[in-house]
Amino acid sequence: IGPETPAVPGLDTPLATSQVAVTEKETIGATIDRLEKRHPEFRKDGVYITDVLRNDQHLPASGETVLARGDVLTLVGARGGLNRLVAKLGAVVKNDATDFVYLGFGIVAGSLLGQIVVKFGDVPMSLGTGGGCLISGLVFGWFRSRSQTFGAFPPQAATTLKDMGLAVFIACTGLAAGPQAWPLLKEYGALLPVAGIAMVLVPATISLIVGTKLLKIEKPLLIGAIAGQQCSTPAITSITQVAQSSVPLLGYTITYTLSNFLLPLTGP
Predict the structure, then answer these.
(1) Long-range contacts: 153-160, Cβ < 8 Å, 24+?
(2) Is residue 228 within 8 Å of residue 251, measured between CB atoms?
């Protein structure tokens, strides 16, 4: 076209950026191409979609991408057109500060759910605090994904809490087991750690083989299910951190709940 020249003073238009959560019914299930044709503000005001975020996964902002409710669109363009589009498509995402009220309600609801005890004969069973908070988190997280105008929980804050929680859990486990560890090691020797490792690896390996070869379960779901099978919160925390995705939690939830019910029946 020609050489690039500086903007003409007084005529340059500063660009603005906004993140909007899709809630408009007509937009749900439509492609980006169809969305831009239905809203003339895209071409008229020079507004562009530069990113599509769905469940912490970045999707290509191409014309063929199909949009779903709760998708977060990053819009760039002139502020006037941008504001008009945001009002039509959904709501501005609020994720700059933690919503402690919403987070607190979720924790309280999960803790209360975990205190519910169901008796099968003489055997009391409950989800426990961990299981209750897990289910509460899934429910509250689903409500948050519907519009993302409330319940903000920045990724940096979530990562800090996960790392701190994992460290505290391991430290408390070590402090609780420490006094009995040395006498048991003197009595059983190397048999004790070897037996502990085998109790973890053998069921996990069998589950991995059955899940991949026979049941054909997708690997992220299968790894999460194995962590839930062993009721291992540190395991699922490490898995989601390495995978940088919350997909393994879908497999973890069911097996974790079943294990909490079935493990008391098998005895110590």
Answers:
(1) 153/95, 153/98, 153/99, 153/103, 154/95, 154/96, 154/97, 154/98, 155/56, 157/98, 159/241
(2) yes
CA nearest neighbour of 23 among 63, 80, 69, 59? 69
Both ends of the chain: CA-CA distance in Å?
77
pLDDT at 141: 85
Say if CB 260 and CB 126 are below 8 A apart.
Answer: yes
- Identify the residue whose tokens are 């540190």: 234
Burial of 21 (0-12, 13-18, 19+ CB in 10 A): buried
In the block, which residue shows the tokens 């019910």? 261
**For residue 268, what pLDDT is reported?**
52
pLDDT of residue 11: 47
Distance CA 86, CA 194 (A): 59
Retrieve residue 34's tokens: 């169809």
**Contact, 103 vs 110, CB < 8 A?**
no
Q: In what order do the strands lie in the sheet with 57-59?
A: 57-59, 48-54, 72-78, 15-22, 90-92
- Give the integer Cα–Cα distance in Å for 244 and 102: 24
Residue with tokens 């903000």: 152
Enumerate long-range contacts of 172-179, CB under 8 Å, 24 or more apart. Answer: none
Question: Residues 87, 57: contact at Cβ < 8 Å?
Answer: no
CA angle centred on 247, ends 242 and 253, rounded to 5°: 110
Query: What was the pLDDT predicted at 235?
Result: 83
Q: Which residues of the chain have pLDDT under 50?
A: 10-11
Domains of the chain with bracketed CATH: 15-92 (3.30.70.1450), 96-153 (no CATH), 175-268 (no CATH)
